[in-house]
Each structure stands twice: as C-alpha cells, then as structure tokens.
Amino acid sequence: DIQMTQSPPVLSASVGDRVTLSCKASQNINKNLDWYQQKHGEAPKLLIYYTNNLQTGIPSRFSGSGSGTDYTLTISSLQPEDVATYYCYQYNSGWTFGGGTKLELK
Amino acid sequence: QVQMKETGPGLVQTTQTLSVTCTVSGFSLTSYGVHWVRQAPGKGLEWMGIIWGDGSTNYNSALKSRLSISRDTSKSQVFLTMNSLQTDDTAVYYCAEMDTMGYWGQGVMVTVSS
Fold this sequence. Notes:
The structure holds 2 protein chains of 2 kinds. Chain A has no helices and 11 strands. Chain A has strands at 4-7, 10-13, 19-25, 33-38, 45-49, 53-54, 62-67, 70-75, 84-90, 96-97, 101-105. In chain A, strand 5 and strand 6 form a beta hairpin. Chain B is mainly β. Chain B is built from no helices and 11 strands. Chain A binds chain B through residues 1, 34, 36, 38, 43-46, 49, 55, 85, 87, 89, 91, 94-100, and chain B through 35, 37, 44-47, 50, 58, 60-61, 94, 96, 98-99, 102, 104-107.
C-alpha cells in the first residue's frame, strides 16, 4: 500500500503569509493526487485535483505542484478563512489519505 | 444539483454490525462511483472503499474482511455494512463522489459502545 506523509503536522502562519504544505508518497504516484480542505465540524472540500488543477469556485490563492513522490499545496496569501486541516489524497495505486496538516493563525 | 446524504444508527454495540445508507441525487449511480471515508474523533481521514458505476467494488485491505459496499440503483442508495464492530470504529462516516465532481455528504456520526 502507498503511504502518504504530510509535513508539517501543524503550521502556524500570519495573515498575508505565503504558506507551503508538503505531501510525500512512498512511491511514484504519477501526479494522481488531490488536496482537500476540512474546516472544523465540516466535510472535506476538494481544492486541487490531479496535482495542479483548481476546483471550480476555489480562490486562485490556492495552487498545487509536484511530481513523482513529492507534492506541494501553496497558499499565496493566507486569509483567516483558510484556517483548516489540509489532506493530500492519492489514487494512483489504491486510495490513501495523508495524515493532514493543521493550519493555524499566528 | 448534486446531493449526498448519509443516514445511520447513531449508536451501535460492540461486536454488532453497522449499516449506513448514502442517498444521492443529481447523478446516476450507474455512471459514477461512490466512496466511503471515515474519520475517528480528532483523527485524520481513512479511505474505506468504493462501489463503481458498474457495481464492482474495492476495499481498504485493513477493513476488507469486515466491510461490504452495495447499492440499489432504483433508489439511488449506496449501503455500507461492517461487522464485528469495536470501539475504535467510532467515527464520522462519509460517502463521497471523489473521482469527477468532488461532492461529499455531511457525514453521520456513529458511536460504538459496549
């Protein structure tokens, strides 16, 4: 089974900061990776699909990149409403979520 | 308008069987797969399984011996059944269309208690 490791587990940042979240797969997942945002008490919401495609309705400050085993979610200018836990999810071989990165305001 | 809604028992006894229903609208179960994902309190997301548009299924290897996913296309419903429940099966259970549209249900909390 493919393992997905997200880092850091917790990230504190200030409004306006550029924020980078990382996700590493235990083997090549061929860009078959999505990013989800989950706010407290809510269902996850799809942000990015197939590594770098912005889901409809998602603000353009969110972007994704990566290849092979290493992937990144970037928020170009952090907003208060971005406080949430972010999960990567691979579907190249089986289906696996990362452990999540909790994003907090400093 | 796509909607997905989970319904379940709320409380289940240990060693018993869990049944959760996902009722969908706005799309056909014969055209899209439906995933099940769960989240234990304070924990991350765990992929459980999928029933594809053709009715075939795939399961998380850690749950495969206890888990079954089925459907009734005439009622637009997908069913999750899991037996031999333990307290660590306490979680919010979500159904989701994750392959094309990115829609999730609101989730249903299931508590397993002795």
